[in-house]
Amino acid sequence: MSNVLLLRAANQDSPDRYENAFRSRGYHPISVPVLETVIVCREELARRLSIGPEKQDLSGVIITSQRAVEAWFEAAQALITADNNTPLKPESDWWSVPFYAVGEATSVALRDLCEKIPMYTPRDIRGGSETGTAERLAGFILKDLPSDGTSRKLFYLTGDKNRDTLPRILESAGVALDPLQVYATQGSSMFPHDLSLALEHEGSSWGWIVYFAPSVAEFVTPILRNHFALPVVNLSTEPEDCTQLSEYHRVKVAAIGPTTESFLQQTLKLSVAVTARNPKADDLADAVLQHDEAQ
Known about the structure:
Blueprint: E1 3-6, H1 17-23, E2 28-31, E3 35-39, H2 42-51, E4 60-63, H3 66-81, E5 98-101, H4 103-116, E6 124-127, H5 134-144, E7 153-158, H6 165-172, E8 176-181, E9 183-187, H7 191-202, E10 206-211, H8 214-224, E11 228-229, E12 249-250, E13 252-255, H9 258-266, E14 274-275, H10 281-294
Helix pairs in contact: 1-10, 2-3, 5-6
């Protein structure tokens, strides 16, 4: 049974479909997280919180993820600690406007926030299980906002990977958005450590490395080269600085789809053995198994 390194975080809430797909075909899959989310623009968000919604002509706030809730909490905490642990009262209270949440998990996180910092947090939380997608939330907001000529401007907390679905629907209907990016996704600072742990615990029987996105590939490949003899397009699989090939794990490379495959081959010059026919767990695992059976 060979190890398959999956360059992604496993699903913690239920059995991971990629791990299950490989395990059911006789492989030993190991998922190593490659991304992390960091809070950004904390000072600007704190400034906006201290002003309050009224002076900013805001009629509500859109919270699209639990990360945005974390950013709100950290900004509020900063305001408290900046004034000797005594909260600065905003010029108008945030509980006077509705907070629109994408999905039940975000809604629950907002309610938990109310118990931690009453001064800067919502009382009127709308949406939840019935607004689990951008399209549903947009429709919910359009029905919920007043149509009597009052302000239709919403404070919109975003990340760096937000799609344009929600703003496109709302702005086309005359709703103004005041966006502020409060979190960003980047390569995990723990990836080298987590990878070393996986190598230490799982031994030397490594067969495959599976890439899931070009951005991830660019970040992890230099780190992977410290441990693996990655196959290179039209060149020897031996790393340039490898004097003892036995110190490196020989592996084959798989890609989740053609975009990732193209990036690996054209930009990183890696030889890709298989690419999933469709970006699905079973198709990916089938492609790997078929390649191994044909060898």
